[in-house]
Amino acid sequence: MNYVFEPPKQAVIPVAGEGAAFPVRRIWCVGRNYADHTREMGGDPANDAPIFFSKQADAVTTDRTLSFPVHTDNLSHEVELVVAISGTGAGIDPDRAEDLIYGYAVGLDMTRRDLQAVAKKAGQPWDLSKGFDQSCPVSAIAPSSRIGHPAAGGITLHVNGKLRQDGKLEYMIWPVRQIIAILSTYVMLCPGDLIMTGTPSGIGPVRPGDTLHAECTGIGKLEVTYTAHS
């Protein structure tokens, strides 16, 4: 086939301990999946249903030095467990959900919080607050064939060595199996899909020069540093 220009480069994430790469198709994100963060954002965890939104595939970055994004005075960090999908299915039974999972990583859902606040107030989409360039730093993927399917463990974020977020996977309102089951009623999940499963409380601002260190017990570590934007 003749293209009018060269197709964009495929977004990929390395697989830990292997000379392989995971090609990214779509990024699905879950909002308000920890009760403490739901309250932090002014919601009621007893009443809220899962909030799903997306980032474009090329928002993924494995770079460790990132440019501070433009059009924001309030860049905010959200550390999250990332689920990498290698199976296909719609209307998935929770008991089957793990069959679709290739592995896990730790990632950051970076957010232009000021733009998000304006969009929320106006009832507008969140796209420019969530889906900007390099808004999804992700660690190498740990295959489930090696680590299993962790349902518990710590998830933390330090900024310049100071603890900001300190949560536990077992505190998710909707665990991974349920997230896959619910999301698969809306879209057919396909190989290459990533699911970011929500963040614990403690979200906060990031400044140029800050170094962020994210970790998910038994899954992976991620460190990024922000430079001033050009």
From TrEMBL:
Fumarylacetoacetase-like C-terminal domain: residues covered: 27-225
Pfam families per record: FAA_hydrolase
Taxonomy, superkingdom: Bacteria
Record key words, sorted: Hydrolase, Metal-binding
Name of the protein this chain belongs to: Fumarylacetoacetate (FAA) hydrolase
SUPFAM superfamilies per UniProt: FAH (SSF56529)
InterPro entries referenced in this protein's UniProt entry, alphabetically: Fumarylacetoacetase-like_C (IPR011234), Fumarylacetoacetase_C_sf (IPR036663)
Gene3D superfamilies: Fumarylacetoacetase-like, C-terminal domain (3.90.850.10)
A molecular function GO annotation: metal ion binding
Organism: Acetobacter oeni
Coiled coil: none
